[in-house]
């Protein structure tokens, strides 16, 4: 039973990351106009995500091998949640970009660490578990723009980051 609970928590974390990744795209025009910056500068709010993920994925996998995937997954969740908090209160575009980098370090670490945890808890059916777990991400990418659009329209662009704080914190309820 414990392994299914862990599977659900990891899948929900991945769903949150996917929703977050696509909801920020909906908020992008509002961010650009709020800070009154060029689209080139504001583009770094989106581009820094790919940069951070590319840098952290192999490092997170190795850190998971050394320190334990579960422990590093919790560090990644904390990094993601703190980065989301900092992004939600960023007073200027430079700090928003830096905060997004922090957030995305956590995001980029999720996939290799989550895969490792799933493999550990489902050794006899790891292909099926990874396949099911991997199917969660596209669902989040479909839901994200809709959730992001509703949040931005109802509460402003900062709300796409506020959503991540309580949901990201849920990972720590069942460590």
Q: Could you name the ranges where pLDDT drops below 50 across 5 or more consecutive residues?
A: none
Strand content: under 5%
CATH T-level topology: Growth Hormone, Chain: A
Q: What is the approximate shape?
A: globular
Separation, N- and C-terminal Cα atoms = 15 Å
Largest sheet: none
Structure description:
- The model has no long low-confidence stretch (mean pLDDT 92).
- It contains nine helices and no strands.
- The longest helix is centred in the first third of the chain and has 34 residues, at 2-35.
- It has one domain (2-166): MFS general substrate transporter like domains (Growth Hormone, Chain: A).
- With 175 residues, it is mainly alpha-helical.
- It is globular, with a radius of gyration of 16 Å.
Task: Please outline what is shown here.
The protein has 9 helices and no strands. It has 175 residues and is mostly helical.
